[in-house]
Amino acid sequence: AVVNNKNLPKKLRPNPAITAVLVLGGLGYLFALFYSLIRFGVTDLG
After folding, report:
1. Could you tell me which residues come within 8 angstroms of residue 3 by beta carbon, excluding any fewer than 6 positions away?
2. What is the value of pTM for the model shown?
3. Residue 33: how many CB atoms within 10 A of its CB?
4. Lower CB count within 10 Å: N or C terminus of the chain?
5. How far is the C-alpha of 28 from the C-alpha of 43, rounded, in Å?
6. Under 8 Å CB-to-CB from 46, ≥6 apart: which residues?
């Protein structure tokens, strides 16, 4: 989730807001996944 902006041209740098949303979304998904695993003993990994 960490992007090294120094190696990217300015046009390809992700918007900080979009990056934050993606990071929070990923963390939220993982949290829900582990919560389901602990609470119900099931996962949705495909």
Report:
1. 13, 14, 19
2. 0.49
3. 13
4. C
5. 15
6. none
Here the tokens at position 43 are 């996962």
Say if CB 3 and CB 14 are below 8 A apart: yes
Q: Tokens at residue 28, please?
A: 């939220």
For residue 18, give the H/E element and its range. Answer: helix 16-40
DSSP state of 13: S
Cβ atoms of 36 and 43 closer than 8 Å? yes
> How many C-beta atoms lie closer than 10 Å to residue 7's C-beta?
7
